Amino acid sequence: MKTHFLFIIIAFLLSSISLQLLAQVSVTPDGRAPDSSAMLDVVSLNKGLLLPRLTHQQIQSIANPANGLLVFCTTDKKFYAFQAGNNVFREISYGSGRITSCCYCGNDLTDQRDGKIYRTILIGNQCWMAQNLNIGIPSDGSVTPQNNGAIEKHCYNDYEDNCNLYGGLYRWKEMMHYVTTPGSQGICPAGWHIPTDEEWTTLISYLGGAGVAGGPMKSTGFWMSPNNGATNTSGFSAFPGGIKDIPGFDKLSTKGYFWSSTNNSDTTAYARELGYDTGTVNRIATPTMNGASVRCVK
Q1: Does 227 fall in a domain?
Q2: 288 and which of 31, 172, 181, 276 could share a cystine (Cβ 3.0–4.6 Å)?
Q3: What is the pLDDT averaged over residues 70-87?
Q4: What is the DSSP string of 75-133?
């Protein structure tokens, strides 16, 4: 009787295991069902899938490999698939495409348009340029850029070395390439865009809120003393590039103004203001005719 009962238990367990092996499996952060076409459906926004990693010798010692068996060889750093017809592991050829260094936040970004190199920094879940953008042709402060296909910038006091140090000062429409859609690429490099007002808010909230975020955002140099609160612990390295307003240039070394791609009216858009005498970050509606600094976000 006991033997018969034990046999029933074992049969039930084997049946359960078989059903599980035949079932579709999903590995997802939200528990969603697998796609109907897949036995295994892996979903992630920030992780990849690792194949077994074996040396050449270990791969050759696999007994009776199945047709199509996939492995990664740690000896020569290549992927292989087993081809049963020829009884051999065939290398899986790489294509010509690649994930370039620009796509890993923290690596330098090379702007392919002019060869300038920018540092990047991951702050929370956002990837920011850690330097002010400096693309385009210097334009006299008395001249209003036009929608002519060329990128025009102002350099503080019309002195180009100031652009090289602090970045260019851009009028909002020129920066946006004469569109008004928040989050547009504008004059940013490919794959990057002008931050929206909301993206600025996300950054500042992550750094403790508008009352204190200026400290971890500001560089510890280039600002006029006392540069209150400046620690640059975020790595954002905000510079005091000043502003180009209607009368002329103003606030170099005392203020930094950074555009968003979100307009407030036909003639104003939101920007963020940092100052040498405070650790706060102010959200201001600035005339689009003014020239301010630009940071791009990925």
Answers
A1: yes
A2: 172
A3: 84
A4: TTTEEEEEEGGGTEEEE----S----GGGSBTB-EE-TTT--EE-EEEETTEEEESS--
- 70 with 149, same domain: the answer is no
* Cβ atoms 89, 71 nearer than 8 A: yes
Q: Is residue 110 part of a domain?
A: no
In three-state form (DSSP H/G/I as H, E/B as E, the rest C), the secondary structure along 138-171 is ECCCCCCCCCCCCCEEECHHHCHHHHHHHCCEEE
Q: Encode pLDDT of 161-196 as tens digits.
A: 999 999 999 999 999 999 999 999 999 999 999 999
Q: Tell me if 134 sits within 8 A of 168, measured CB to CB.
A: yes
Residue 49: predicted pLDDT = 81
Asked whether residue 156 falls in the same domain as residue 215, the answer is yes
Cα–Cα distance measured from residue 254 to residue 235, given in angstroms and rounded to the nearest whole number: 19
pLDDT tens string 240-268 = 999 999 899 999 999 999 999 999 999 99
Write down the pTM of the prediction.
0.68
pLDDT average, residue stretch 99-114: 79
Query: Is there a domain that residue 9 lies in?
Result: no
Task: Specify whether 92 is located in the same domain as 229.
Answer: no
CATH code (residue 77) = 3.40.1620
Kindly report the backbone phi and psi dihedral angles of residue 211, in degrees, each rounded to the nearest multiple of 5, phi listed first.
-70, -20
